[in-house]
Amino acid sequence: MATTTDPTQTPSAGLAERLRVPSRFPYRTIAMGTVGSTLLMLAAFGAGGILIKDPVLGHGPLSWIRYGHGRMLANAVLYVGFGLVVWAWVRLGRYVLAGRIGSRPILVAAGCWMAPLLISPPLFTRDVFSYLGQGAQLLYGLDPYANGPAELDVLPNVVQNVHPLWQTTPAPYGPLFLLISKGVVATTGDNMILGVILMRVVLLVGLAGTLWALPRLVKHLGGKLPVALWLAVASPMMVIHLFGGPHNDLMMLAFLTIGVLAALERRHVVAVVLVTIGMLIKPTAAIALPFIVWMWANHLEGESKVRNFLRAGAASVGLFLPVFVAGTWISLGSLNMGWWSGLKAPQLIANWLNIPTGIGEVFYNLVHIVVDVQVSPFVTVARAAGMLVLIVFGVRQWWLARGGGTEAVYRAGISLLAVAILMPPTLPWYLTWGFVLLSAFKWQPRHLALVVAVSVFVTLVYYPTGEQALYDWWFIALVVVASLYSAASLLRPDPLGIIDAWRRPEKFLRD
Q1: What stretches pass through the bilayer (predicted)?
Q2: Is the pLDDT of residue 9 over 80?
Q3: 3-state DSSP call for residue 468?
Q4: How many CA atoms are closer than 13 Å to the CA of 251, on its beta-carbon side?
């Protein structure tokens, strides 16, 4: 008989037999994640990226949740909610791996888990306040690539909620996204709550584009659609980071995925145009353009591969330049190239999540035991070495992609992951750049378990307020344990036998 009972709730002896039985709609799993995301939303009013002057709680009877023991309680509830979302996601993943559900339950689950977060304060980040501040600069005729939002003498709520690090820092985003932010601020003004909600609604356009492209990408790249949707759309990185954050990467990913799909379907002009537009939102999309050149070249007729490459390269550059110039001009009202210098701004963030930075800090601490030195030279040298490794790796991936087709897409996805890991800074949601493209390929269960571990880890290494937790070593130790347990749970329900022991204590009495 078909059942919605999750494998974690059955004795392991009958698991193999039960997994062969198609599942009914996983209502309980979806409900668990929905309860979790609702707890995330409620607790975020005390533990998330709250406003400096909160018009919802303010100094009213519920303001205690923002201070002292109330804030501790809010954090506890928030992490419980996070745990329920992850638990539901892993349960859903087991159904997917067993072939017991199709795509529809995953889409319903992702929608239900995102819905409460639409009205939530920002989670694990405050970047959305920077988006609004930079959009306000553009709205009032200021140059976001010259100065930070602190120069604004209007919209005090917008300005004061920007993180101190970004108050005087130029925008690191593409001009088209600043135009979008400008439109949001023009609509919501100084109302930060409406600004955050409207920004999420606008970014949902990006999610819709990705959802449209994924089924078609799966057909080309040989994956399974339920696996791709579970990995790219229902994961904590998408639900909590990209949407709950929210982050503009969600919009960029739509242009990236649709552009890559267009290249696979031999619509190369559309591919170059779309990926260039994605670059005007977040410059990282540009990584895919050289790979699209190979795809175009391999679709051209003619025996000379060199000539085909030159033709495709020239055509791509000929498309890229006018789209880039027009997009910049339309967004900013001029050909303001100051946003290139703004790309250096995120490098102000230094922590060991970025591997080269972490290596530099390790060497600094070893030397600092003997000699009193500054950390910056060590980090600078390590980052320079990391950039060299990234360039060599990226060029090699590009060369290996010279056959075009699905191989080029795979190499592009790998390169996007490498950029996220090796180029400072490494922020948790950056890993979605590569994961979304790679989700459309065929995956082994053990590799998906690794993605679970990474997803849980990178979501938790920042506090819900958006401040990093990477040097709170006891906390990080707990995060590592939670990540490994989540990964093991995907492959083997209740890997430590905790639930089974709780349900059948007599087993231990017999032992």
Answers
A1: 30-52, 72-93, 105-124, 192-213, 225-244, 250-265, 272-297, 309-332, 352-371, 377-396, 408-427, 447-463, 470-488
A2: no
A3: strand
A4: 24
C-alpha 90: how far from its chain's center? 18
477-486 — which CB contacts under 8 Å span 24+ positions?
482/83, 482/456, 483/452, 483/453, 483/454, 483/456, 483/457, 484/453, 486/86, 486/90, 486/452, 486/453, 486/456
Cα separation, 353 vs 458, whole angstroms: 9
Q: Which two tokens stand for residue 505?
A: 């204590």
Residue 191 C-beta-side C-alpha neighbours within 13 Å:
12
What value does the mean pLDDT take over residues 131-138? 95
**pLDDT band, very low/low/confident/very high, at 503 (cuts 50, 70, 90):** low
Helix (H) / strand (E) element for 395: namely: helix 376-400
What digits encode the pLDDT tens for the residues 372-381?
Answer: 889 889 999 9
Q: For tokens 């749970």, name the residue.
A: 489
Quick count: other Cβ atoms within 10 Å of Cβ 201? Answer: 12
| Distance from C-alpha of 94 to C-alpha of 494, rounded to nearest angstrom | 12
pTM above 0.85, yes or no: yes
Q: Is the pLDDT of residue 263 over 90?
A: yes
The count of other CB atoms within 10 Å of the CB of residue 321 is 11
The pLDDT, as a whole number, for residue 505 is 55
Report which residue type is found at 400: L
How would you classify residue 266: left for phi > 0, otherwise alpha for psi between -120 and 50, otherwise beta?
left
The pLDDT, as a whole number, for residue 55 is 81
Angle at which helix 268-281 crosses helix 249-264, to 10 degrees, equals 170
**In a 10 Å sphere around its CB, with 0-12 CB exposed, 13-18 middle and 19+ buried, how is residue 378 labelled?**
buried
Which residues sit opposite 462 in a β-bridge?
468
Task: Please tell me the distance from the alpha carbon of residue 40 to that of residue 33, in angstroms, as a whole number.
Answer: 10
Residues 385 and 261: beta-carbon distance below 8 Å: no
Q: Measuring CA to CA, which residue among 244, 231, 259, 169 is closest to residue 204?
A: 244
Strand partners, 490: none
Q: Residue 221's pLDDT is what?
A: 96
Give the model's confidence band at 110: pLDDT under 50 very low, under 70 low, under 90 confident, else very high.
very high
Residues 6+ apart with CB under 8 A from 127: 163, 245, 247, 466
Contact 437, 257 (CB under 8 A): yes
pLDDT band at 67 (very low <50, low <70, confident <90, very high): confident
Q: Average the pLDDT over 108-120 and give the result.
A: 97
Structure tokens at 58: 């303010």
Q: How many CA atoms lie within 13 A of 305 on its CB side?
A: 6
DSSP notation for 183-210? HHHHHHTT-HHHHHHHHHHHHHHHHHHH
